[in-house]
Amino acid sequence: MASLLITADSVIMTPAGTPTRVVSPGYVQVENGVIAEVGEGRPAGEADVHLPDGLLAPGLVDLQVNGFFGHDMVDADEIGWHTLVSRLPETGVTSFMPTFITAPVETQAAALRRGRDLLPGLPAGARVLGVHLEGPFLSEKRKGAHNAVHLTDPAPESIATLLETGLVKLVTLAPERNGALDAIRALTEAGVLVSVGHSDATADQVEAAADAGARMVTHIFNAQTGVHHRDPGVAVQALIDDRLHPGLILDLHHVAGKVAELVFRAAAGRVVLVTDAASSAGMPPGTYELGGEPITMPEEGPPLRADGTLAGSGLRLDEAIANAVGLGIDAVTAVDAATRVPADLIGRPDLGRISRGAAADLVWLGPDHRARTTWVGGQKVFGGGS
């Protein structure tokens, strides 16, 4: 459909140069995959789609997806890539970063080449924004579910190897490792977003990383130094440094609700909701893989390694929004954290917002904030109706 007019009881929109807000009622006119007009009230023409309740929001943007629906992205084959791209819109996600956790550099490079070769043949569905490498340049002390055998310093030749395909757009690393600050500068110069994570760094070391170009902190409070009144760590700097955007896994298991409230209050306008979803997400309880090693998905809670270590999550991004709203975070702030904020952070102002000229990536969130219908480029890729 080249042209699409959607009317809705409530629309979250970001008109150019203004803050994100809810208008009730509102409408969105799509032409050739791009938002041509947004407005309050009712449009002059007859709507192609009317959403009688819930919220019309920008398509969700997830910067940390290790896997989903039984597939681990680091070793996913063509079926795995096709499955995630075609099914993530069920969760409201219209663009995402496949995330490869720690492995030998050559293994990651091979996975990047495989992904590059598969990209042209992917079906309609969620956009692939590039790859997030979460490791191997992490701290052994804060390895979490990562394999310590493969952790290493970010040598220049390793960085060059990983950048070869042009597919890497986000790298999580520990800034206290040897050569890390030089690596942050090199990655930033190459247009790669750098995130501090799995780190035993002090707040001062994280500040130095931000001075070098780092702009994100991976899953705040998890696998990092925290908040101590005489020994501030990664989490403290993430909360007080306006240059840093804390990623937050809001499944209410990785971070307690009151701590999530603290993050939203202290880092207002900077929070990035992520799922950190593992291959077990969207699947029944059982045994799955993360980074080539087994994880167990229990009846309740996130997946675990055999030693009880949290190993990614089973979270949906629309569920993260619902959890935020359930904590008392207003819907605009919650949706912004899963749309506009991550899109802006990765330099994609055409995504994550309902405004004229933006890509027509949209999701109808029901009153429970769960995705009902999803459009990418104005084309329905999930849900009923038009």
UniProtKB/TrEMBL annotation:
UniProt KW keywords: Carbohydrate metabolism, Hydrolase, Metal-binding
Pfam family of the protein (one): Amidohydro_1
Metal-binding in keyword set: yes
Keyword Metal-binding: yes
Domain Amidohydrolase-related: residue ranges: 56-379
Coiled coil location: none
Family to which this protein belongs: Belongs to the metallo-dependent hydrolases superfamily. NagA family.
Identification of the protein by name: N-acetylglucosamine-6-phosphate deacetylase
